Amino acid sequence: MTEERTVEPLLEPREGIPPVIADAAALAETVDRFAAGTGPVAVDAERASGYRYGNRAYLVQLRRAGAGTALIDPIECPDLSGLDRAVADAEIVLHAASQDLPCLLEVGFRPRRMFDTELAGRLLGYERVGLGTMVETVLGLRLEKGHSAADWSTRPLPEDWLRYAALDVEVLVELRDALHEQLSESGKLEWAREEFAAVLATPPPAPRSDPWRRTSGIHKVRNVRALAIVRELWTMRDRIARESDLAPGRVLPDAAIVTAALEGPRTKKALTEISAFTGRSARKHMSDWLAAVARARALPDNQLPLPSTAGDGPPPPNRWADRDPAAAKRLAAARAMVSTLAEQHHMPTENLLQPDAVRRLTWEPPAEITDESVSARLRELGAREWQVTLTAHPIAKALAKLETRDL
Fold first, then answer.
1. DSSP label at residue 21
2. Which of 99-103, 206-210, 216-220 is the least confident region?
3. Which residue has the higher pLDDT, 2 or 29?
4. Distance CA 236, CA 224 (A)
5. Integer Cα distance of 48 and 161 in angstroms
6. Which CATH number is 8-201's, of 2.60.40.10, 3.40.50.150, 3.90.1180.10, 3.30.420.10?
């Protein structure tokens, strides 16, 4: 999409590595500085996923013209609502916003207007949309991405980590400007604005009723008594992880839970013979794990979990041909049409129209297939206006053609 250029390494922030803001006085000075700045505000957040329980932010980075770069410790400064108010009228620039917005909301930072450079890259048809790749492809600068999976709860944070964090927002506004121009030139700017607004309007996901059912490998567990063991072990692990502020997988791997459910160990010796229980944290809680297995074994039948829970949507597509062959044909036709349109507009199919909307539309289509009825249904399913404009007529035409053929 862009002409070949010499790639230059981006090694140091322009004004050097700023000190970490970790007290009320420094935060107040930063609020004043960013309030006096101009233009969009680049924002990023670093979490400790895989290390700590939950997805809270352990470092928040911001940059704005006239204000420079700020690195804020949200553990010492957990309320950024003052900073939020100071830049309330500014456009906030994020990369992969849906990842950072939840932890920013936790500290009181809530963008009103946003530009997501990753989402913009998807709409523009870039094959790789990671921040480092986008900066290199669009701006000709190379970012060092070596600390993206680090434990950002570490204190004090090493200098090279802080350098990496500052560089993540160093040219984010410049990247935004370049992508904004490309969106405008390609006629996709309004599409992007609708997408950004939709991301901001999406409410946080509701807690799952049975979160333990997302245990990796649970599909191997075929009987309800063994499922009860998964549930009890998962619940015990979650409690220990929360109390210890550790990622659940560091307390006990999913593989250990599934293996214990399949083997049903009755003694500590049998439990220790399961290789996934040999980690230091797992060994520390052997009595808890054994008690959880025993509780599952002792449950009366009427308290055992159901083999599966009914979802609120269609069944998995691989079952459609058996359950409703006509629906399977509609899904295939709609998917083919969306794929063709996505190729024409140079973007991934899932960005042209959400796969869940395609499934729900074709599983329970309107009683009468028309442009208007398909448009209305897509809007009900959360499609944006630009998506409805591009897809409703072609999908309606494809589905109507199927109906005519089946008459």
1. E
2. 206-210
3. 29
4. 18
5. 13
6. 3.30.420.10
